[in-house]
Amino acid sequence: MGPAAEAQPDSPFSFDIHAGPLIELFQTIAFAIGVGVPESTLLKDDLAWSRWETFCALVGTNGTPAWRTDRDANSGVDPAGYDRESRLLCAFLLWCYEIIQPRSKSDAAANPQSAFNMVAAVRRIHRRHLIDMVSCAHLSAVLKGITLHHIKEHGPESILPNRKEPISAKLTRKMLTTPAGVTLGNKKLDWSTPLFLSLGTMFALGMSTGFRKAEVALPSSTPFDDRRLRRASVVWRINGVLRADPSAQELSEMVPGRDLALVRPPRSKADPDGTKFGTNPIYLALDETDPANAASWLRRLELAFPCHGSKRQLCPLFFSDAKFTPISHSTVDTYLRHLLLCYVSIEEAESYSFHSFRIGFATSLLAAGCSYDTIQALARWRSPQSLLIYARMDPLDYTAWIEKALRQDPHTVTGKRLPFAIDEDGLIAACAMAEGLFSKADELAGLDTELAA
């Protein structure tokens, strides 16, 4: 645990947290807070802290401590200290902007937002150790300055986020009806094997639910746990009766339109403890006439590779072999790309990732006339309003929206991929667009806000 903020030794309430029989409790506070932080955020924070330590070692003649525990300086009680801490954070922002490399070879320079994210990460780390760093209004001015300089130097398109494009239901159907025997990398496509049957089911489920890759596959060097879908995550409603462990006969007797697959969402970065969305199942109606129907693929998976009893709690929903080895992120990325290249160019394939199913799901719902609140509920985006309104969505409404979404074929493109012709007026417009970045820094001026990773 990092050092505690400087205390007032003459206070009648003071005590030494580094001594006594309860020392371990005080040392565990930061660990307990860290457990609730997503792994992806912790990885970014580790990188930011490494850079912060390097930066602090270069400050002045002998460096300066990385842990900023001067409470009077951080709060503004000490004006000179407040100025010192503000200048330190502003200098770190400029230093990060100079050293950070562009994320893509096509980018001439790193986005100023990437540098600002390093500052936000250092603040998060301090906060997890119960230290509130200085609320620095000057950060906004510095970020604004380097962003406008960045626009003038590299063009307004350089600050646009390079987001993936949506995969449509139409493209999903093409991939899922790819003929067996097609060569995909070093394998021949065979939809009956554990790997390809799992991938087909995963892609169909992604198009109908918007599951994140971390919910369906396993990141590298990560043990399988309840943050990934398991066989027990799927429950079947057959002839009005819920079946948590259906037999092959019961699955074979399912009636399209009447019977459903219910999927319990696992814990996720939007629902760390599983209490927000884990209690609300996803309803998937069986329709064997649609090659992208998720319930149909799930039933094929159940019938081809049965898993019963307590094993359903331990078995991943998607696996790469008959031993039920969880599918890795890299495997998903590899074969999604191979399937995409059967139908789109290499350049277009680069604009897609597994997250494109989630984007495609939301985009198709919008094209079908679905309201924003309902899209938030169906795609499990965290929103108090939608949770209150749609906490118990009717299965008929749920499946009807999915059916409508799968009938859409929207055509969208992100601003990053649009051609740019810039003049003086266009530069002014681009600067106005950049204000969205500055507002994030402005939040730090009066409120110690943690930015989402």
Question: Helices and strands in order, then pairings?
Answer:
Blueprint: H1 23-35, H2 39-58, H3 71-75, H4 79-99, H5 112-128, H6 138-154, H7 169-176, E1 183-184, E2 187-188, H8 194-209, H9 213-216, E3 234-238, E4 241-243, H10 248-252, E5 260-263, E6 282-285, H11 294-304, H12 311-314, H13 329-340, H14 346-349, H15 355-367, H16 372-378, H17 384-389, H18 395-405, H19 424-446
Antiparallel strand pairs: 1-2, 3-4, 3-5, 5-6
Helix pairs in contact: 2-5, 4-5, 4-6, 6-19, 7-8, 8-11, 8-15, 15-18
Describe the structure.
With 453 residues, the protein is mostly helical. The protein has two domains: 23-162 and 432-446, no CATH class; 169-405, hpI Integrase, Chain A, CATH 1.10.443. Helices cover 48% and strands 4% of the residues. The protein has 19 helices and six strands. It has helices spanning 23-35, 39-58, 71-75, 79-99, 112-128, 138-154, 169-176, 194-209, 213-216, 248-252, 294-304, 311-314, 329-340, 346-349, 355-367, 372-378, 384-389, 395-405, 424-446, and strands at 183-184, 187-188, 234-238, 241-243, 260-263, 282-285. The strands form two sheets. The protein has a four-stranded antiparallel beta sheet. Strands 1-2 form a two-stranded antiparallel ribbon. A hairpin with a 2-residue loop joins β1 (183-184) and β2. α4 packs across α5 and α15 (355-367) crosses α18 (395-405). Residues 386-391, 420-431 and 440-453 have low confidence and may be disordered.
